[in-house]
Amino acid sequence: MSEHEFDVVVIGAGPVxxxxxxxxxxxxxxxxxxxxxxxxxxxxxxxxxxxxxxxRTPSAVAAxxxxxxxxxxxxxxxVFARRDSFTSRGDDSGQAxxxxxxxxxxxxxxxRLAGEKAVTVGDDVYRARHxxxxxxxxxxxxxxxxxxxxxxxxxxxEATAADEAPRRLGVLGGGxxxxxxxxxxxxxxxxxxxxxxxxxxxxSAEPVAGEKVAAxxxxxxxxxxxxxxxxxxxxxxxxxxxxxxxETIEVDELLLATGRRPRTGDAGVETVxxxxxxxxxxDDSGLVRGVDGGWLYATGDVTGRSPxxxxxxxxARIAGNAIVARAHGAALDTAPWGEHxxxxxxxxxxxxxxxxxxxGHVGRTADGARAAGIPVRTVEIPIAVAGSLLHADGYDGxxxxxxxxxxxxxxGATFVGQDVSELLHxxxxxxxxxxxIGRLWHAVPSFPTxxxxxxxxxxxxxxxxxA
Length: 467
Prior knowledge:
It contains 15 helices and 21 strands. Helices cover 31% and strands 24% of the residues. α1 runs parallel beside α9 and α3 packs antiparallel against α4. A hairpin with a 2-residue loop joins β12 and β13. By secondary structure, the protein is an alpha/beta fold. The protein has 3 domains: 153 residues, FAD/NAD(P)-binding domain (3-Layer(bba) Sandwich), CATH 3.50.50; 111 residues, FAD/NAD(P)-binding domain (3-Layer(bba) Sandwich), CATH 3.50.50.60; 107 residues, 2-Layer Sandwich (Enolase-like, domain 1). Its cofactor is FAD. InterPro entries: Class-I_Pyr_Nuc-Dis_Oxidored (IPR050151), FAD/NAD-bd_sf (IPR036188), FAD/NAD-binding_dom (IPR023753), FAD/NAD-linked_Rdtase_dimer_sf (IPR016156), Pyr_nuc-diS_OxRdtase (IPR001100), Pyr_nucl-diS_OxRdtase_dimer (IPR004099). Pfam families: Pyr_redox_2, Pyr_redox_dim. Its EC number is 1.-.-.-.
């Protein structure tokens, strides 16, 4: 056994861990970055990047077909090949080179906490002078379905890494992964059956989002069954037999898209008094609660907060800067919206669902705002402006604005429609900046763009009588 000492030790070299390590090193601290699988993590090889690569070409073809005079088709093989160009077929050498070029020490192996400021990797011990950061992400949840352990299943990794579309694909779930992968594979040639125990899709967004995505999935030929879960599974030769509502459906692959949980079961958290399998609860500077000494930090999915790559990277930037400040004895700015406060986690979390139509939402839904005790008015309108009409024939979209009537500031926004993802950051800025509705009236959208829907939302809000 050998020991090594660094100012900071980060467990997990996905985008979140990389950001925490980078910001700590920029602040003059020495950093060891520990990775058990691939540098770049889930997002780079099995999640955000490959899933969007699989979705992009089919969506572009569908968009082209909405314009007169355009003939478009796709080659599924070329789509998978383009996906491979982004994931380097699992070769992480390029990202590993970046770690070294940034002045960070990469350590290959499974990192585990081993008491105060200590991490073991195999037979080696890495001791931190100032901080350990846990950025181990999350792991899929397997639902309690009879026979589920007797058949092969896909998780998000298998779905994004497959080399061809199965003839028949079953999808269990109604969230982001389920919707995106169901549509991607339907457009790549699979016959898709989608089972959703609840009565709508995308339950974290406004209802109109799930309604329009459901209509689009059905238009793509997906057998979407809301309110119908999976009762049991069994082998059927080379196929998989799904039992649902008294019916048996055979598929060639079954995607389980039923959620994820923080990856703490094998992180050694019990050595510092925490419970394995549970999220690491943090304060807004990233410090883990329940651990004395102010040295253990966590960022990203492992915290149970806002499980999105961009939000994990945001947390990592703040935690990295907080570690640097504390290491140098500097004062921290932990007031809301301060340099060392993860305030956006509570108020302005943006998310895009890259289905066609896209869904972009940020902040609170109307129901979520009311549950938090915020008095709100909601405006919901179709996206029907010159920009959308020019963008695609038969453009079908919707926009929702949720306004705190006590302060007259937006606290939530949702856009549904072709190519609306690029509208989302304007809403994020308005919500994070708490921009008054009266000031937004003077933010003039360019004509003719889809963003003119902002004007229509504000006009509707100003003209409707307040209840």
